[in-house]
Specification:
single chain; 739 residues; alpha+beta; Aldehyde Oxidoreductase, domain 4; 7-stranded mixed β-sheet; 5-stranded mixed β-sheet; globular; binds dioxothiomolybdenum(VI) ion
Length: 739
């Protein structure tokens, strides 16, 4: 099915199942411990051997020698895999550095060897006996030092050009009566998901099966085949349950490749989980950014010049963090300039983490907007309202499909009690706490991806959906079941959903907050095709047939679906289809919007920061399952508090690695850090996005929230921090004098 004209009314609009707050259908499996994760596939692979990865101890250079004798002789060792013994390997298109290094080393903790043994403890003990001598070469590890020589990034299909200019930015900025020119920084961050990267691998002849934790099944089958030099059809990837990904599992990593190579070398299935201290430097991370923002406005508060430049670093051939991109779309202003520059650094590989681009971009832009509002003497919400736009500010003829940013801000202000905020900072005390409120806009694009599904109706009236879509903890199982139940006119209990297997039709996968809308649209397409088959077999004209209560009906003749399937034979009825998209995404700018409100308390003596209240108002098209969507948004808000106040990979600029490589050193929020959170969804549908009329929401919640926290800290204390995370050492010297 092709979606190239805006949706009219369709079966989803019935909202009998879609739009209802529905518990996770996979919840009972998870709470009983019965959902099989990649490292625990006892059901599929009863007696695997264990692999343990040895990571590089230097950031750049080569292996001078590797002594494996002691490790080989250790108890239980079955095989050791290195680049020298693995045979010729290629590289997948989604991996910047090789997953198995040697003799050249591209980054710290790049995998150099896998030790396979009968037990985990044996593999780990033997891995400590691997002796590697290195030849170091100097590397570049300091983004600030590399900044001035960093060129523009290469343009990409995904992110567009790396530089945009509209009107005369420099002239308009110079002439503006009110100006802001400020620099901001965001640190390297780690996904730090609960489940480590993990894979169980088994070969049957020359065919490989990987039970692995992965967001994008089809990308990863392709990359694994390319790396091993075998046909894609010889790789099966199975990933039904995933304990968080946040972009860190968009691709196959060393656990998957080395489990496959280890299983081949040992002649036996092998499982590998990345040990937590290896994950931070071995896998990808969100790159640090340096950002410069220049805003020029008239005394009326209207922006006349908007400039946003961003610098990040990555390994050779890597990607930039596209933190200036949202500034092309978010506010009006006739003269504009954005630039994305990329330095080569020899740190571990930078790549996507939840809302890549917008998350760190809004951390800077939405502080800048707060600073500019203050310079203009305007309320931050009124300042944003003055500079709203309903068209793409870089292409005036191109409207947003929906844009209700200002409604989100105003509704949020009313619910949060924004009118009680003192514009003058450091005015509100509550005992030892200085109290302040902050606001920021949330913005994230809505991306559309082709997605396919297969649906089967059996003689009990059960509808089974199969697609290689993944559920990374987001609720995919549930919204897919809701979609099938709605379209087929059956109760939710009559739907079974099977996900995350490359034997199933290729879906959009989970990434870029496109998963919910795109995967359910693919299921919608397959269900509509199945309806046609069922109606025809029951002797009805398909377009007239009504599907409800487990029956297909025209006027007063109704046939149970189970009966139609029964008459079709043992296999029941099967339909497969996909949803793909025409150029509506070019004609209309599709984005999601929101507003974040935060109240903080800052200890007047110690500078300790506590978040006291949070509210997000979101406009993200039809909300398919308000309960799951709320969970996504509060999770993202929590992650944004981490970005604002805690998360930072400390770079060792001499030796080129992230020092705090575990959850003791890399701090993320815990329950005690997070107070009352509220989420309001605007009641809207976007017929331009898909037949579901939904949009992404899983990343919107992390966009802007960190700036709202930083703005609240400023309002509480009068101390403006432009370098994240906002920690008490950055406040302490500048707190107001207290008696
Ligand atoms: Mo998301 S960073 O595309 O998983």
């Amino acid at each position: 099915m092709k979606f190239d004209t805006p949706a009219t009314s369709n079966p989803i609009d019935q909202l009998k199942v879609i739009g209802q707050a529905t518990d996770r259908i996979d919840g009972p499996l998870k709470t009983r411990g019965a959902a099989p994760y990649a490292y625990e596939r006892h059901d599929a692979v009863p007696n695997p051997a264990y692999g343990y990865i040895v990571g590089a101890g230097i950031a750049k250079g080569r292996i001078a020698s590797m002594d494996l004798d002691a490790a080989r002789a250790a108890p239980g060792v079955l095989a050791i895999v290195t680049a020298g013994s693995a045979g010729k390997l290629g590289k997948g298109k989604f991996n910047t550095a090789k997953l198995l290094g040697g003799p050249e080393i591209d980054h710290y903790h790049q995998a150099l060897a896998l030790v396979v043994a009968d037990t985990f403890e044996q593999a780990r003990a033997a891995a400590q006996l691997v002796r590697i001598a290195y030849e170091r070469t100097p590397g570049k590890f300091d983004l600030a030092a590399a900044k001035d020589s960093a060129p523009l990034a290469k343009p990409s299909d995904f992110a567009g050009p790396s530089e945009t200019q509209v009107g005369d930015f420099a002239g308009a900025f110079a002439a503006a009566p009110v100006q802001l020119d400020a620099s901001y920084s965001t640190p390297d961050q780690s996904h730090a998901m609960m489940e480590p990267h993990a894979t169980t691998a088994a070969w049957q002849g020359d065919k490989l099966t990987l039970w692995t934790a992965n967001q994008m099944i089809d990308w990863s089958v392709g990359d694994m085949a390319a790396t091993l030099g075998i046909p894609k059809s010889h790789v099966r990837l199975v990933s039904p349950f995933i304990g968080g990904g946040f972009g860190g599992k968009l691709w196959v990593r060393a656990d998957a490749l080395l489990a496959a190579l280890g299983a081949r070398a040992a002649g036996r299935p092998v499982k590998v989980a990345l040990q937590r201290p290896l994950m931070i430097n071995n896998t990808t991370h969100r790159p640090a950014t340096l950002q410069r923002i220049r805003l020029g406005a008239g005394r009326d508060g209207k922006l006349t010049a908007i400039g946003h430049e961003c610098w990040s670093g990555d390994l050779p051939e890597g990607q930039p963090e596209t933190s200036a991109n949202q500034t092309r779309l978010l506010y009006a202003g006739a003269n504009r300039f954005t630039a994305t520059r990329l330095a080569v650094l020899d740190l571990p590989e930078g790549n996507a983490m939840r809302a890549p681009g917008e998350a760190p971009g809004l951390m800077a832009l939405e502080i800048a907007m707060d600073e500019m509002a203050e310079k203009l003497g305007l309320d931050p919400i009124e300042f944003r309202a003055l500079n709203d736009t309903q068209v793409d500010p870089e292409q005036a003829g191109r409207p947003f499909s929906q844009r209700r940013l200002i409604e989100c801000l105003r509704l949020g202000a009313e619910h949060f009690g924004w009118s009680r905020r003192q514009a003058q900072p450091a005015q509100v005390r509550d005992g030892r706490w200085l109290v302040g409120m902050g606001v920021a806009a949330a913005f994230r694009n809505n991306l559309l991806m082709k997605s396919a599904a297969r649906v089967r109706l059996d003689n009990k009236g059960v509808v089974t959906v199969e697609t290689d879509m993944t559920d990374i903890g987001t609720g995919s199982y549930t919204i897919i079941a809701q979609t099938a139940a709605e379209v087929m006119g059956v109760p939710l209990e009559k739907v079974q959903v099977r996900l995350g297997d490359s034997d199933f039709p290729v879906s959009c996968g989970s990434g870029g907050q496109w998963g919910g809308n795109s995967s359910t649209s693919g299921v919608y397409a397959a269900c509509m095709k199945l309806r046609e088959t069922i109606a025809t077999r029951a002797g009805f004209t398909p377009l007239e047939a009504i599907f409800e209560d487990g029956m297909v009906r025209v006027a007063d003749r109704a046939v149970p679906l189970a009966q139609v399937a029964q008459e079709a034979g043992d296999k029941g009825l099967v339909a497969e289809d996909f949803m793909e998209y025409g150029d509506l995404g070019n004609k209309y700018q599709q984005s999601t919007f929101g507003a974040h409100f935060v109240e903080v308390g800052v200890d007047a003596a110690t500078g300790e920061i506590r978040v006291r209240r949070m509210l997000a108002v979101c406009a993200a098209g039809r909300i398919l399952n308000p309960k799951a969507a709320r969970s996504q948004v509060i999770g993202a808000m929590t992650m944004g508090v981490g970005a604002a106040l805690m998360e930072e990979l400390a770079v060792d600029k001499r030796h080129g690695f992230f020092v705090n490589h575990d959850l003791a050193g890399y701090e993320v929020p815990v329950h005690a850090d997070i107070p009352h959170q509220d989420v309001i969804f605007l009641d809207e549908t976007d017929p331009v996005s898909s037949p579901m009329k939904a949009k992404g929401v899983g990343e919107l919640g992390i966009c802007g929230i960190a700036a709202a926290v930083a703005n609240a800290v400023y309002n509480a204390t009068g101390v403006r921090v432009r370098d994240y995370p906002v920690t008490l050492d950055k406040l302490l010297e500048r707190l107001p004098n207290v008696v």
